[in-house]
Design brief:
Layout: H1 3-13, E1 18-22, E2 25-28, H2 29-39, E3 48-53, H3 57-69, E4 72-77, H4 82-93, E5 101-106, E6 116-120, H5 121-135, E7 141-145, H6 152-164, E8 167-170, H7 178-184, E9 190-194, H8 197-206, H9 208-212, E10 218-223, H10 230-239, E11 244-251, E12 255-261, E13 271-275, E14 279-283, E15 288-293, E16 299-300, H11 304-310, E17 311-312, E18 315-324, E19 330-335, E20 340-342, E21 345-347, H12 349-356, E22 362-372, E23 376-385, H13 393-401, E24 412-415
Parallel strand pairs: 1-8, 3-4, 7-8, 7-9, 9-10, 10-11, 23-24
Antiparallel strand pairs: 1-2, 5-6, 6-16, 11-12, 12-13, 13-19, 14-15, 15-18, 17-18, 18-19, 20-21, 22-23
Helix pairs in contact: 1-2, 1-6, 2-3, 5-6, 8-10
């Protein structure tokens, strides 16, 4: 079954159930399917349909209409320049796309040029099944989406919600938390959301009082896209003692692979749980994470050579470094190229960042390599102070000295107004190279 087959079934079984809430507007399952069915007549089977990913009911109608028609959905960022849209449109007219492809999602390009990732209908449903199994999506659940719907982080939450016949509450981003708190007041039994670690950190700092008012209603919160500091995990567990809290391993290319409930287990930075039933994880001899299963991409559109460089015999080879512990749980240790070589010692920036973020005086940070005229390559820390706080470089170094080996302590420091991040919340390491 395709995702739109589940949508059609829900329209028949629960016609008056609210499917989507957005900007004080609602649409039922019957209305959503009928509008999508009507709009599907605009598209030809096999065509690629490029459109902008607005945070709206209209976006979802268009998305499902394209699938109903048997066309391929290519959602781009809402503010993508017209030249970029035309560039992709021209490129896609000259490439052959496999018949089972449902979506082409363009990556943010943090590790190189943005790539068009082809996802099949099978991969979409398999990702949904993994999330339903791992995080217990239900018919009663209302899922709050605040991230861009052209990226897998938020779009993947549409899949299980639609399959289970739940409700989607779509927000226009998280520039402020007022809209998020308003969403939590929506009359339903259970609510959940996905938020990147930097967003959760802000929520803990500035929205703890409002969050505590909904402690019995928030079923679960998932995070991903970037490492979450252990201190933030522990703080969120205290703030929401009845809420399931997940760290998830996923990417556009792999789909959703594994998830870890740190509210029911130990708070361990970098732990992303066991692979779910639609997926498997392999650790290569070089210590990289590789994935197999039904959630994997079909390849990079129009680039067979690039596809072959990361996929072979049904295995997707990633740049993520990690290991499986004695319980089969995945632990990430950063990415190829991120590790900093300091005098022959290997330093993981992810480890340093997680420790620094446990300091109450630090709001955000990034650890990068820096060339010193005498010492050569050293570790440099860029950091953002929490409001009303002050901390010296020696205070940070002293704190680090109680946590890690001496060679891992940053030797250069710089206070900055903000840390550069991508559109979907990842640290933009590429911007500091």
């Amino acid at each position: 079954m395709r995702l739109v087959d589940y949508l059609r079934n829900n329209a028949e079984c629960y016609p008056d159930k609210i499917a989507v809430i957005c900007d004080d507007k609602t649409i039922t399952y019957s209305q959503l399917y009928q509008k999508s069915l009507f709009e599907s007549k605009k598209y030809q089977s096999g065509a690629t349909v490029i459109f902008r990913a607005s945070q709206s009911i209209e976006f979802l109608v268009t998305y499902f209409a394209i699938h109903i028609a048997g066309a391929v959905a290519v959602p781009l960022e809402n503010d993508a320049p017209e030249s970029r849209v035309e560039e992709i449109k021209q490129f896609l007219t000259d490439v052959c796309i496999p018949s089972d492809v449902a979506d082409i999602l363009y990556t943010t390009g943090t590790t190189g040029k943005s790539k068009g990732v082809m996802l099949s209908h099978r991969a979409i449903v398999a990702t949904a099944k993994n999330l339903i199994e791992g995080q217990h999506f239900s018919h009663e659940l209302c899922f709050i989406i605040s991230g861009p719907l052209n990226h897998i982080g938020s779009l993947s939450k549409v899949f299980p919600t639609i399959i289970k016949g739940g409700s989607l509450y779509v927000l226009s981003g998280l520039k402020g938390f007022d809209a998020f708190f308003k969403a939590l007041e929506y009359p339903c039994e259970k609510m959940a959301t996905f938020m990147v670690p930097s967003g959760l950190r802000m929520l803990i700092r500035f929205g703890s009082k409002q969050m505590s008012q909904h402690v019995n209603k928030i079923e679960f919160i998932e995070t991903g896209a970037a490492p979450m500091a252990q201190a933030d995990m522990e703080e969120l567990c205290k703030l929401l003692p009845k809420t399931r809290l997940y760290n998830t391993y996923a990417s556009t290319e792999s789909g959703v692979i594994s998830t870890y409930d740190y509210s029911a287990n130990e708070c361990v930075a970098g732990c992303l749980g066991r692979p779910m039933s639609q997926s498997q994880i392999i650790i290569t001899d070089g210590g990289n994470v590789a994935c197999t299963g039904n959630t994997l991409m079909s390849g990079y559109v129009g680039d067979e050579q690039l596809t072959k460089s990361v996929m072979k015999d049904g295995i997707l080879y990633t740049s993520d470094k990690g290991f499986l512990d004695e319980n089969g749980m995945l632990h990430l240790q950063g990415r190829d190229g991120d590790v900093i070589n300091v005098g022959g010692y290997k330093v993981s920036p992810v480890e340093i960042e997680g420790i620094v973020l446990s300091m109450s005086e630090i709001d955000d940070c990034i650890c990068i390599s820096h060339q010193h005229p005498v010492l050569g390559t050293i570790v440099k820390l860029l950091y953002v102070l929490a409001q009303g706080c002050d901390v010296s470089h020696s205070d940070i170094a002293k704190f680090m000295g109680s946590k890690v080996e001496k060679y891992k302590i940053p030797q250069a420091y710089e206070q900055v107004p903000a840390i550069k991040r991508t559109y979907n919340g990842k640290l933009n390491r590429k911007a500091y190279q």
